[in-house]
Amino acid sequence: MTAAFRDLGAPVAGLAAAPVAGPAAAAGPVGTLGLGGKGDSLAALIAAGFDVPAGFAVTTTALRQVVEHNGRREAVLAALGRLDPHTLPEVVVDLAAALDGLEWPAHLLAELTEQVRELRGVQGVGGGRFAVRSSALAEDGAALSFAGQYRTLLEIEADDVAAAVLDCYRSLFDAHVLHYHLDHGVPVDPDAMTVLVQHLVEAEVSGVTFTVNPVTGHDTELVIEAVRGLGEDLVAGRVRPVRYVRDWFGRTTATIASAADHPAGGPLSDAQLDAVADVCLRVQRHYGFPVDVEWAIADDAVRLLQARPITRLGYAGIRDQWTTANFKDSGVSATVCAPFMWSLYEYVWEDWLPTYLLDSALLHPRELRRVGDLFYGRVYWNLSVVKRAMEVAPGYRERAFDAELGVKITYAGNGTVTKLSPRTLARVAKVALRQRAIVAARRAAAPELLTELLGRYDARLAELTGAASAADVKSRWRQVVVTDYHRSEGVYFWQVFINQVHLALDRDAIASVVGHDGYLDLIAGLDDVSHLRPFYDAWALTRRLRADPDALAWWRGTDPDEIVAALDTGSLEHRLDEARAMIDRFGYHSVREIDVTHPDFDADHRPVVAMILDTLGLDDGHDPHADRHRLTQRRADTLARARARLVRRVAGREVGRHRYAAFARRVTRTRQLLWWREEFRDCSTRQYHLIRVASVRLGEVLVAESVLERADDVWYAKAFDLVAFLDGSMSADELRRQVSRNRAYYDSFRNHAPENEIGHAFDGAGQVLPETPGAVLGIGSSTGSVTGTARVITGLADIGRLNPGEILVTTFTDTGWASKFALISGVVTEYGGILCHAATISREYGIPCVVAATGCTTRIPDGATIHVDGPSGQIIVLSEGR
């Protein structure tokens, strides 16, 4: 074939060679092949081994040549140049005239005829008819689908294919298509169309499957609509289908709607329904995101006609408001969550949060509902329940609460506001007494708790790394996962809950004296904060390397992979012994801290080597001790400003000293709360390291005992399913079935980016933001401003593109990214709140930070010059990317 035509089944580099049929198969999103949304998708499905009707694409090259051959291109471009909402009717007329009577160049017509002849000769096709389908480059995208906008022609005879192709091309300029472009601000490209010619499936039954329920939002429900015969009337909405809803996770099926033209109860037999459900779920697993699939059944085979992303989801069936706030930057919702990891979070979250809310008298037992759940492979927490608890406090403003967390605001004004009244005063008095007791108890117990957790960590690590029988491995795994984890994570979560309540109150009181910027200055520069210790060690090591010419030359001249290999072999040269000591001290960290499936530093040395090399390139102007001195001075200046405001000299006496002393104590208390949160988070990270070590060994044992097929199957079992198996209350067959089902769920959403807030209250609701022309708005979380180059990093794999002095623009950060903050001049994140990881680390480094900047990774071009204003939360794009 020439560039004018392309076989849909031609091999494509990088595409999967087999469908996702087993737990190991996982293909990522398909890159564009230049065949339009439909063509790219079908080519990818063919490459993956799915049953797709044979065919070829008439490419944009061929269609442009047709227009140019007829001398119509200039007229088309001129008409499109005048397109706006007012000129739309006349532009449609002009385009129709410009494209009327097109004739094929002789050489292209000959090649098209040959392609049709060859397609008719494909085994099993014989003299069959054809389906001619538009495949625009703009359709079936992640944001806009253009569903139903372009033309599809069925039952086309061979002699009519050439005319049908041009008819499909003209649909690029239909009035409703141009209107769609204008409504969504998408430019019209006259070359943005290919046309597919395929063997027509003489369907017995046709239909469409949504692999998640697009109305209720239920993520394991397949919605299958089917009609007898060809499906074009179904897609166009001209017939009433029979609808089936199947929860593939639970294997339940219901016929939701029927119609008079299906008197027998539906066009699909049970076997056909099973086949359709199976193939559509495999398509979802192949892509890793929800899709709608057009299919047809002929000769007892399910044949795929189209698969595209579902671009709009409703949540009418999900009670309450749910959010990933604070779960993104902590890691558990940073990406699709392994079933094992979710089961750990579910274990502690469903226990400790209700306990705290009840012990604090913030909620009555009857007001409690489920507080955590998994949607679309991500962990969410129940925002409705927590808001109900926070409403107890007089002065509560829903908008302030949502803004601090970075939650999407879908209402005007302040939302729910709690005013002072006799009723609220009586309730809050009870809460205050409970809270005072809770905080006092934690303040007194914190040092002892820290000693306990660190001591237990050292003891368990020694046990886990020693030789052990299979029975010992199982016993130690249970101890670490069931008993120790509940204790360690409970201590951490209890501190988080305390902080959530009291930091909000302290923030308002402090900001009322020194303003928002002053508040940020006063909570920055925490002493010996845990998440910066690896960088301090890396800094000290690299200063020694810079003073050692031989070692410095080796580190700078050796490939990072060779450095890792030298560490793995135990080499002590070139100060590798010091690097090894650093790994021994911080081996429990990883670049994905709360993801037990991801190797920690002790198993994967590459992040540590990268940290050392990054830090080695920094001159002494980046000395963290100098940063701390600067932050300490800024804090002292802010305290002095507060004292000047609160203390006045009246008649030779200082008035207000007690007010200032109370203010200073509040600042100290706030800093202590923040420090303890980070310290107990570090203990939590250590516990996850123990869980990983114990679970890896358990997986190896269960494979050796032929219980699991692969060692990593352990991550696809829920923790308490493993406990049930070890107890003998679950069979090995049932455990394997659970693993298989959980893998299917994990695969289904591994490339999906669900909304941060879901639930019926967010169903179709948009973000309500103040208007600032030309600005991307977020929450100012660290003082200062900076102008520099934006580096848009969408994931950990791209972090190597970040250069010194640039401004990091990303979705969220993880604690494993901390060392990168020494390189950059500012941070902008799409998610998070004022106490999230990015905000906390930015304050420690003294760089501007804006979080919860909705759409920042798409609205800010990579490489653009931007101005980040920390106090106001505004980001101004000064120049386009390069």
UniProtKB/TrEMBL annotation:
Gene3D superfamilies in the cross-refs: ATP-grasp fold, A domain, ATP-grasp fold, B domain, Phosphohistidine domain
Organism: Pengzhenrongella sicca
Domain Pyruvate phosphate dikinase AMP/ATP-binding: 35-314
Protein's recorded name: Phosphoenolpyruvate synthase
InterPro entries xref list: ATP_grasp_subdomain_1, PEP-util_enz_mobile_dom, PEP_Utilizing_Enz, Phosphohistidine_dom_sf, PPDK_AMP/ATP-bd
Domain PEP-utilising enzyme mobile: start-end pairs: 803-873
Record-level Gene Ontology MF annotations: ATP binding; kinase activity
